[in-house]
Amino acid sequence: MSEPQTARIRAMVSADLDAVMAIEQVCYPAPWKREHFIQEIHSHLSFPFVAQIEGAVAGYVCLMSLFEEAQILNIAVDPVRRGQGVARLLMDHAIAVAREQKAELLTLEVRASNAAAIGLYESYGFVPYFVRRGYYEGQEDAILMEKNLKE
């Protein structure tokens, strides 16, 4: 079996939504609706991107930026593509775009049980700053994390 091609990051477009929705459905117990992604594609405050490998969407990230703060609203990688660096490419790109937009702070929220994601975010210098109790489906806590982008 040959090595997979390197992922290419590009802007999300409507034609990506079937693949994005398929990943969203398997990654999240309470997935976003298609309309959420359509809003992200068309909003001037949002920067949705996909990672594409061998012609297929391998993952995506939705970033919102307003004034000095940016937020990662959604990020997911196709389970068959995990462990190939796709999440890191998406994070690198989101951080670069947030900086291009002059954001000084980048925030996100993550399920308390998602140790792999928390580890990834911590490796990028994100630190927890608040816990929303019972945020997900009224049962699981959300950990809010932030990264200072000023250097």
Give me some keywords for this one.
seven-stranded mixed sheet, alpha+beta, 151 residues
Rounded radius of gyration (Å)? 15 Å
Label the structural class: alpha+beta
Strand content: 35-45%
Count of strand segments: 7
The helix tally amounts to 4
**Spatial strand order of the main sheet:** 1-2-3-4-5-7-6
Q: What's the average pLDDT?
A: 94
Question: Percent range for helical residues?
Answer: 25-40%
Shape: globular
**Low-confidence residue ranges:** none
Which secondary structure elements does this structure contain, and how are they paired or packed?
Blueprint (H helix, E strand, L loop, with lengths): L7 E4 L5 H11 L6 H9 L3 E8 L2 E11 L2 E9 L8 H15 L4 E7 L3 H9 L3 E10 L3 E9 L3
Parallel strand pairs: 4-5
Antiparallel strand pairs: 1-2, 2-3, 3-4, 5-7, 6-7
Describe, in plain words, how this protein is organized in 3D:
By secondary structure, this protein is α+β, with helices and mostly antiparallel strands. It has helices at 17-27, 34-42, 86-100, 115-123, and strands at residues 8-11, 46-53, 56-66, 69-77, 105-111, 127-136, 140-148. A seven-stranded mixed β-sheet has the order 1-2-3-4-5-7-6, sandwiched between helices. Strand 3 (56-66) and strand 4 form a beta hairpin.
